[in-house]
Design the sequence.
């Protein structure tokens, strides 16, 4: 149940010129890292940057309607986006905007650990303009050289009501489909099969107690032939002008994060995870240094397992080029991993 594959959009991240309201979600399905049940599925929208574009910045958009976006409330997003995403090998991405609403991209990744691959991605943004940074519907698709497809459709159905549908195939085999809906709560339905009687239902609801304090809960129900179960979790978030703290507590364990904006250039975050299933705990520290005048973005992290990582993103104006470098060192296993990326467009 906790290793359900996720359908994600184009892993290369849409170009900023298209004005897409969110980056693609990154799936977190590793059992050793999972402490909040709904993370077995993709967060409904905009939790983290795309897995294939670790240098893509996540934009915090405002959605008319509910006071809180439930997906963002439960995802510890503010803290997690400070941490660098692991890179390995060489990656070249070419983004081409064909119009104000349509964009394609090509990505070639060369790796010494995994398989080298090619991805072709397509992004379409509709004409329903809600704000200068939001337009619907959004259609995102990605196909690799083996024929595997990831695709999703995101649409604003009404004031405060948003939905998403995502599908994933692995070569010629259909592996996952998922439907989300968000109003004042988020309901996610993953891989439903009426004939077999299987599927996963996730519902979570945040509520504002005071201007600074919000509390909520989550219910996960999964069923398949011969097995069914329910997992419940509670969550809370406390927010002030330059910092926020979020905690989730449930049968799967505990997950707590603290985010602090020290200045316009420096942000830091601390993350604590305890898994009752894996009988393991970990603490991570991450920071982000943004220097707009130098077109430079640096992220670094270190955790209690003595894994140190960093990524550097450098834009090279006036050319439409973005250079990304990343390195991770695991002191316990004496392993080093590095990566290099170049984005054109």
Sequence:
């Amino acid at each position: 149940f906790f290793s359900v594959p996720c359908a994600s959009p184009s892993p290369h991240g849409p170009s900023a010129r298209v004005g897409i309201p969110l980056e693609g979600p990154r799936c977190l399905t590793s059992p050793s890292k999972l402490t909040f049940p709904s993370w077995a599925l993709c967060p409904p929208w905009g939790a983290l940057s795309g897995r294939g574009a670790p240098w893509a910045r996540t934009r915090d958009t405002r959605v008319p309607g509910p006071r809180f976006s439930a997906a963002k409330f439960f995802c510890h997003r503010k803290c997690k986006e400070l941490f660098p995403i692991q890179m390995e090998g060489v990656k070249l991405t070419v983004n081409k905007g064909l119009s104000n609403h349509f964009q394609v991209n090509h990505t070639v990744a060369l790796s010494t650990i995994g398989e080298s691959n090619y991805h072709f991605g397509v992004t379409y943004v509709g004409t329903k303009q809600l704000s200068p940074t939001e337009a619907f519907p959004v259609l995102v698709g990605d196909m690799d050289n083996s024929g595997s497809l990831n695709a999703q459709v995101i649409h604003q159905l009404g004031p405060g009501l948003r939905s998403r549908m995502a599908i994933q195939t692995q070569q010629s085999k259909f592996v996952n489909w998922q439907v989300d809906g968000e109003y004042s709560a988020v309901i996610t339905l993953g891989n439903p099969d009426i004939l077999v009687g299987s599927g996963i239902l996730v519902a979570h609801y945040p509520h504002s107690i005071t201007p600074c304090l919000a509390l909520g809960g989550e219910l996960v129900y999964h069923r398949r032939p011969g097995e069914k179960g329910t997992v419940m979790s509670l969550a809370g978030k406390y927010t002030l002008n330059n910092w926020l703290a979020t905690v989730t507590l449930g049968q799967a364990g505990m997950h707590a994060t603290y985010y602090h904006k020290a200045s316009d250039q420096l942000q830091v975050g601390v993350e604590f995870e305890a898994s009752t299933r894996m009988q393991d705990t970990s603490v991570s520290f991450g920071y982000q240094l943004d220097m707009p005048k130098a077109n430079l973005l640096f992220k670094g992290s270190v955790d209690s397992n003595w894994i140190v990582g960093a990524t550097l993103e450098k834009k090279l104006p006036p050319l439409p080029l973005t250079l990304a470098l990343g390195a991770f060192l695991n002191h316990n296993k004496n392993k080093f991993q590095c990566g290099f990326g170049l984005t054109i467009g």
Notes: The two ends are 39 Å apart (CA to CA).
